[in-house]
Write a structure and sequence with these properties.
The protein is mainly alpha-helical and 197 residues long. It contains eleven helices and no strands.
């Protein structure tokens, strides 16, 4: 018997993000997901080391890798449309849930429960907080894209950068891990390789 899960997941590289915006360099879903996974891992690590939390950083990285995999089926819904009003937002969440279920159906039954744990929260306080940090990592990754576009002379992302920056300010007040990452690791993004060395 053949199972299509990983072949389908591998198609993330064909899903371009920011489709309604002029990009100086396109970003695909695979690139974004890798960045989210690394940032989510870092946020949880900061929480554990500096704030005595008990977060599963490895699990956060795994959730980050798969966090947008439903977009293989749904495509990347532009943020202004996705969050236009509560009805559209709720309907899109349902569509994402169905898409995730369709993806999980592409696994053999004995493996499915393991992957369901990645896609679904276990409702513990630690898991909910960790998933909140994965969402923060998603916003940080989007902000990094805005920085990179701005540095390449593309003003198309200015409004998005401002909007996401406001969200990160709010998240920084709620989560010390986000505040630390934004203050310590975000400033070097957009620097040249020579400046980083």
């Amino acid at each position: 018997m053949e199972y299509n899960f990983f072949a389908t997941i591998s198609r993330m590289k064909y899903i371009d993000r920011w489709a309604l915006m002029r990009n100086s360099r396109t970003e695909n879903l695979s690139e974004h997901s890798l960045e989210v996974a690394m940032i989510a891992h870092a946020l949880c690590t900061i929480g554990n080391v500096r704030y005595e939390k008990n977060l599963n950083a490895d699990r956060a990285a795994l959730i980050g890798l798969y966090h947008d995999s439903s977009e293989i089926i749904t495509g990347d819904m532009p943020t202004p449309v996705k969050y236009y009003n509560p009805e559209i937002k709720d309907a899109y969440k349902q569509v994402e849930k169905i898409a995730n279920y369709k993806l999980l159906e592409k696994l053999p039954k004995d493996l499915r429960p393991i992957y369901e744990e990645i896609f679904k929260t276990d409702n513990s306080a630690d898991d909910k907080y960790m998933r909140k940090l994965v969402k923060a990592a998603d916003k940080i990754s989007a902000y990094i894209k805005c920085i990179e576009e701005e540095k390449s002379g593309n003003t198309e992302f200015s409004k998005a950068k401002e909007s996401i920056g406001n969200i990160l300010d709010k998240l920084s007040k709620e989560s010390p891990e986000v505040k630390d990452f934004v203050e310590e690791f975000l400033p070097p993004f957009g620097k040249t390789l020579d400046e980083l060395n």
